[in-house]
Amino acid sequence: MGKVFDEEIVTLKADFMKLGALVSEAIANAGQAFIDHDVAAAKTIITNDHEINHLQIHIEKRSFEMIALYQPVTGDLREVVGILKAVTDLERAGDHARNIARETVQIKGEPRISEVETIIATMARGVSEQYDDSMDSYGTADQAKAKETARTYDQKMDDLYNDIAAPSYQAMAKDPDIVNSAIIYLNVAKDLGRISDYSTNICEWTVYLATGKIIELN
Amino acid sequence: MSDPIITADNLDLYYGDFQALHGIHLDFEPHQISALIGPSGCGKSTFLRCLNRMNDMIDGVTITGMVKFHDQNIYSPQTNLVDLRKEIGMVFQQPNPFPFSVYDNITYGLRIAGVRDKQKLDEIVERSLKQAAVWDEVKDNLYDNALSFSGGQQQRICIARVLAVSPSVILMDEPTSALDPISSAKIENTLLELKKEYTIIIVTHNLQQASRISDKTAFFMEGRVVEYDDTSKMFVNPDNKQTEDYVSGRFG
Amino acid sequence: MQNQKLAKQLMKKSKTARYERFGHLLSLSALLLIMAIVLGIIVFVATKGLSTFFNDHISFKDFFTGTLWNPGTKTPSGHQAVGALPMIVGSFLVTILAAVVSTPFAIGTAVYMTEISPKRGAKILQPVTELLVGIPSVVYGFIGLSVVVPFVRNTFGGSGFGILSGTFVLFVMILPTIVSMTVDSLKSVPKYYRQASLALGATKWQTIWKVVLRAATPGILTAVVFGMARAFGEALAVQMVIGNAALMPHNLVSPASTLTSVLTAGMGNTVMGSLQNDALWSLALVLLVMSLFFNLLVHFIGRKGAFKK
Amino acid sequence: MRKRTVIKWITALVVVLAGIGAYSVRSKTATNQQSITAVGSTALQPLVEAASEEYSAEHSGIFINVQGGGSGTGLSQIESGAVQMGNSDLFAEEKAGINPKGLVDHKIAVVGVAPIVNDRVGIHNLTTRQLIAIFTGKITNWHQLGGKNLPITLINRSQGSGTRVTFEEYGLKGHESAVAQEQDSSGTVRQIVSSTPGAISYVSFGYVNQTVQPISLDGVAPTEKNVMDNKWKIWSYEHIYTRGEPKGLTKQFLNYLKNRHIQTTLFNKLGYISVKDMHYQRTWQGKISKGSGES
Amino acid sequence: MQKLDQQSDRFIYEFNPEETPITMQTKDLEIYYGKSLAMHNADIQFEKNTITALIGPSGSGKSTFLRSLNRMNDDVATVNGQILYQGVNINQPGIDVYEVRRRIGMVFQRPNPFAKSIYDNITFALQRRGVHSKKVLDEVVEKTLKQAAVWDQVKDSLNKSALSLSGGQAQRVCIARALAVKPDVLLLDEPASALDPVSTAQLEQTLRQLKKDYTIIIVTHNMQQAARLSDYTVFFNMGEAIEYNKTRKVFTRPKMKLTDDYVSGNFG
Amino acid sequence: MNRSQKQSRIAIAALRGIAGFVVLILAFLIGYIFITGLPNVSWHFLTTPAKAFTSGGGIGIQLFNSFYLLVLAMLISLPIALGASIYLNEYAKDNWFTGMIRTAIEILSSLPSVVVGLFGFLLFVVQFNYGFSIISGALTLTIFNLPLLTRNIEETLSGVSDDQRQGGLGLGLSKYETIIHIVVPAALPGIISGIILCSGRVFGEAAALIYTAGQSAPALNFGDWNPFNIDSPLSPLRPAETLAVHIWKINSEGIMPDLTKVSSGSAAVLVLAILIFNFSARYIGRKVFEKMTSI
């Protein structure tokens, strides 16, 4: 296939990486805003989510067109299919970052549990790192790094989730006033957990991109 | 996995001093469509023609190695060429019906084999035209000159002509390259039906075609088989870089 | 503005267009010239040939059914002795026999040249056939006289002069024409017909017989027509070996004559415009009509018997 | 590409010029009488041709074309005035379709015609009656005449040929030959007679050679001397006709032909008999009278 | 700027001539072979510096349409209606077809180099038009062969017979040959159908380059080729232009059911 | 080995037999001509003029005449045949009229050459007053030659792929330019074999020339190449007996003693000449083709 496909795939990948960067920013900022109780930053994230959605739709459309027009095979096929699949994960990860931003707005004025928030902060950083590593591995089609990332973070993030969930439930049982906050903590942890899952998915697509094999990494 | 019906073993072919095929080893399984792909001059057509000894006609061709058909080396001196070609039929690039009626075209192979029984001939004409999925289009014009039909119909008549002598293997040398997409699609559908009863080996330039219809694909380059595997693998995740470049169109 | 300029450029007759007009006219005039020649000859032969009937008042019946040829005199029964039947029959017989004999040989040779041994065919047979076309008919005639006639006399009896000798000589004379044209038509049969046939398990012979020859039939028929045309028009050689006697041929070894041989022999000894001369032109006219007939006949057979390529 | 166009035009030009040139030169030479043409009898052709060669050798720049075509052609061409001399084996009066008015006869030579047979026949002499019987198809085998048991093969010259007319008139006494094979040249006749057992035909004396057997008639041998004395009856004049009295080159050439020197040297070599040597003359109706008849 | 002709079930994209330079345009075109109507309803505009692909089943009239654009059909068909080339109707009496064909060049299905050297193949038409300066011809040869992306392969064998070239090279030499007479528009009639995939890819590459300087109209029966190569696609069926739109649209969201069926291979 | 294969072997053996038989016939013919003829061929024979009635004559002038006439006839007929076949194959629509023209041309080719000769005689020799001359002969040969040559060229032209024509038209060239500069060169090898075949016929033709180019070969002045002088070898107006006519003439009316020698020698020379002509035409054709295909 000619140069045009190659040019288009470069653009597509650039768009995808741009989307990755936007989502990465959203994840990082959402975690930070939650910890800092920064409503303004959270609102920015919510607004910016539109951009992510637009970009995702654009990338999907381009991918469909490329499949329709060029009928790629082998590496090209994996490139387009990988992006087409991973872009959903990115967008969803972005959605969860937006959810976290919403929780940041909701939790404003509620009582806090500082030890839980410390763990959330750890988890947010971890998830953000995991996401970034996943995207790095995708960007370089580095399946070793992808597997490594999945192995490193997956269990860790599950553990962190439990570390957040347990004190939150305990707090809820003890103090009815804290229920709202605790639920929000649980939601945030869940969002972070999902982002971690999507990152793992991205790692799986990295493996597909590199080898054409579809595997489960967790 | 069943036993291969045709096996090429260490097959070399020379045009004079020029070696066109280098130690080809390929197995073809029954009731499958195997596609041979590769750039022009890679030897895929030459190889195909080795399988029913159509290269024998060309001056200065030397062939070494073996082609086994049901465990029998077709290059052994005992081989009866005429019988061999009845077992291993061939369809060519250009639709090439003889300039006779459709009926005469289909019955040609039978008549030269001495079949005279009109009723039997009629049956076979109907059967093979139906198998080649062209019966409905020609049944009312069986006695018209085959050349008066469209290219796609002509090619299917040619397929029917091969089917009429009941071969077990059909070799096809770019059977759709002279046809428009609709006719090609019809031929492809025909082939997918035929593979239930026949073994089909097809040379094609059209990579999408290979990917659409074949079970196995062999990629030839410079007289060698670079890669031979399941088509699904060849088009998603080939082992060889050259194969990948070729099937993705980045070649040359 | 721009458009008008362009329109002007496009409307201007270019040099190329003038070339085309010139070339068209040039080739048309060449064809018209040939047509004029053909028509001229046909009209010429027709007027001369018909004047036997219209100026000299010979009846068609005497001409076509009479068997005595001595224009200017009367037959014992009182008719004009202008019976052309012996020559017509002689011409027919010798042409058809020559065509019948040489066609299988020519086809066999052509098949050999194209299908069996193309290399040897191109190297030896083709130049030789082309060479034979150029041997003057007088030479053929003399070889016929010194080789064929004694051979026929010793083998089949009679004087040796007759239709059989004429056939043998014409056979050799028209062979090159038929061979080279048959070779052309065999070569124009696409290679893939042969491949398809072989791939269906046909033997080489079956392929040649059932596919190649069948597909080449129109071309072969044309070749035969041209061969017959040459046989028809041949005079000097035939005249020497056929005996050239205006007798109804009773068998193949008794002297007979053809239209051309009588025509050629008599032309110089008659005076333009005399009955003797007009009668000869009538023979030429008959020849013309007969070759037209053969032409149409073979084209008709060709169209019926074969398919469009 | 351009070069070829130029070449093509040059070729076309050359052809056109050659055509025009040819026409103009033609008319010029025709009026200057630098070249004259004699057409007709193939029997007379070698003689006139040989004479013209000698004449041209003696007179440079003179061109005498001698063409065959047969007596009929010669007469009709001279009648239409297309040529200067028309050669004929026959009197113009004898030829159907010719108006002899205005044609001037120049009798150049006398030619004797002899019956010839294949030398395996074994017969050297025939009577006139036997000859007539043979040629009218009444006798069909040589053993009927005391020769070998060989069927007789008749070979005639073409109808209208001067030799045949002469032979039928004086050899067969006016009987017409039966329909048999015909040849339109003496050479071919001789060749066929020499190679066909039992063949009989007739040629002018010039063509008789060792390959065929000449026949004496009624004991008279076909010799020039017998012709001069009219003992051998089968002979005829060779005529050159002109349209009106000859002028210029034509006249000079005709005189040259009639010149004693030519008539004695060339004629003998070619088997013609000089008119001057004849002791008898004959009119076109066949009347014989004494005298050479030379004009 | 678009019209959806509900009655005839056709969708034809239209340009705004104010904004978009249009090189060629057909209006009310009707093409007859003898008495039979082979082509009608094809009012198409061709934008400058684009590639337009004409697709459709065999006998749909796409080649007929293409050939009438530079009047190559003159001898075999009767063409009614207007064919506008830069606003001038070239389908009218008095038009010099040779000048039209010079400006609207054509490349054919099978590579058809003349039995001449490569150099002469390219310069032949110019020489016939009276250009004989060696310098000018040399320049043209180099320029067009470079444009056709075949210069590097043939520059050392310009004097060799063009018949010795491979199919792909020969086809690009044919393109160079067409470019040598400085056309505006390039018509291509299935130019890659006789070529293998590698040569086809190279040819497509060449065409993409050429689009900068020419308006290219290509008939192809390879839909992938139309898809990956062209900017606009016209879908013909039964002698009618059914849909004319941007290629991306035609191949992802065709407006017509018929087009949809055809490009997705569910046709016939 | 089954039945059909046996049948095939037998049939192919039979074909080989037929081809072998034909080769034998041909070999016999050529061998006969050469064996009887070549011993009589010498340099002297090839260069001296013919003698009418003495031995020792050659065929120098006849040989020259044959070639000159052939070249002239081809120069005239080739452009006409080319033009006509171009019109028939490229311009003419395929209808009954074209069919009629083709049939007429085919019929013309079956006319006995003597009829063509007489036509030429009446038209060129008499009507145009070219006399018995090379130009009359060449024009008559043109008539004789045109049908076959036209048909041959037309056949070859129709064998050139339409792609080539479209290529030319697509470049904005006229049909005519395309034909002349592309189609004709592409058809050149075929045209050349057509010319060779026709040349063979022309070379061996006698009957058409007897009445047009004449049967005499007057001595030529080989020092004078001005075509307007009548004794120049190039003069189109001189009578010119060709080799084939010479063979015919000496066999039918020749009276020289060494007739058979001259005749068989001439035949051998004729065949040799055709041989040389064939090879050189092929060679030149190949060279021209190479030149045109790669400069």
From TrEMBL, chain C:
Keywords: Cell membrane, Membrane, Phosphate transport, Transmembrane, Transmembrane helix, Transport. It is a multi-pass membrane protein. This is Phosphate transport system permease protein. SUPFAM superfamilies: MetI-like. Part of the binding-protein-dependent transport system for phosphate; probably responsible for the translocation of the substrate across the membrane. The chain crosses the membrane at residues 21-46, 84-107, 128-149, 161-183, 211-232, 279-301. It comes from Lentilactobacillus diolivorans DSM 14421. Residues 88-298 form the ABC transmembrane type-1 domain. Belongs to the binding-protein-dependent transport system permease family. CysTW subfamily. It is found in: Cell membrane. GO terms for biological process: phosphate ion transport. CDD domains: TM_PBP2 (cd06261).
From TrEMBL, chain D:
Its main location: membrane. One of its GO terms (cellular component) is plasma membrane. It is a lipid-anchor. SUPFAM superfamilies: Periplasmic binding protein-like II. Residues 29-257 form the PBP domain. InterPro entries: PBP_domain, Phos-bd, Phosphate_ABC_transporter. It is found in: Cell membrane. The keyword Signal applies. One of its GO terms (molecular function) is phosphate ion binding. Keywords: Cell membrane, Lipoprotein, Membrane, Palmitate, Phosphate transport, Signal, Transport. One of its GO terms (biological process) is phosphate ion transport. NCBIfam families: ptsS_2 (TIGR02136). Part of the ABC transporter complex PstSACB involved in phosphate import. Involved in the system for phosphate transport across the cytoplasmic membrane. The complex is composed of two ATP-binding proteins (PstB), two transmembrane proteins (PstC and PstA) and a solute-binding protein (PstS). Belongs to the PstS family. This is Phosphate-binding protein. The lineage of its organism: Bacteria, Bacillati, Bacillota, Bacilli, Lactobacillales.
From TrEMBL, chain E:
GO terms for molecular function: ATP binding; ATP hydrolysis activity; phosphate transmembrane transporter activity. Keywords: ATP-binding, Cell membrane, Membrane, Nucleotide-binding, Phosphate transport, Translocase, Transport. The keyword Ion transport does not apply. One of its GO terms (cellular component) is membrane. Transmembrane segments: none annotated. SUPFAM superfamilies: P-loop containing nucleoside triphosphate hydrolases. One of its GO terms (biological process) is phosphate ion transmembrane transport. Residues 24-263 form the ABC transporter domain. This is Phosphate ABC transporter ATPase.
UniProtKB/TrEMBL annotation, chain F:
PANTHER family: ABC TRANSPORTER PERMEASE PROTEIN YQGI-RELATED, PHOSPHATE TRANSPORT SYSTEM PERMEASE PROTEIN PSTA-RELATED. GO terms for biological process: phosphate ion transmembrane transport. Belongs to the binding-protein-dependent transport system permease family. CysTW subfamily. GO terms for molecular function: phosphate transmembrane transporter activity. The chain crosses the membrane at residues 12-35, 67-88, 100-124, 130-149, 179-203, 266-285. Keywords: Cell membrane, Membrane, Transmembrane, Transmembrane helix, Transport. It comes from Lentilactobacillus diolivorans DSM 14421. Residues 63-281 form the ABC transmembrane type-1 domain. This is Phosphate transport system permease protein PstA. InterPro entries: MetI-like (IPR000515), MetI-like_sf (IPR035906), Phosphate_PstA (IPR005672). One of its GO terms (cellular component) is plasma membrane. It is found in: Cell membrane. It is a multi-pass membrane protein.
